[in-house]
Amino acid sequence: MRVDRNLFGWGVFFLVAGAVPLVYRAGLVDASVVDRWWSFWPLILVGIGLGLILSRSRFEGIGGWLISATFGIMVGGAFAAGFVGFGNLGGGVCGGSDTGTPFAPQNGQFSGPATVHLELDCGDLAVSTGSNGWAVKGTDEDGSGPRIVATADRLDVRPASGSDAPFLRRREHVEVELPTTTSLSMDLTLNAGSLTVDLAGAQVGDYALQVNAGDARVHLDRAQTVGGIAVGVNAGSVRLYLPNVSTSGSVQVNAGTVELCAPAGVALRLHTGNSVIASYDYSAAGLVQDGSTWSSPGYDAAQVRIELDTQANAGSFGLDRAACRT
Question: Which residues lie closer than 8 Å to 215 by C-beta, 6 or more apart?
Answer without folding.
Answer: 86, 87, 88, 90, 91, 193, 194, 195, 236, 237, 238
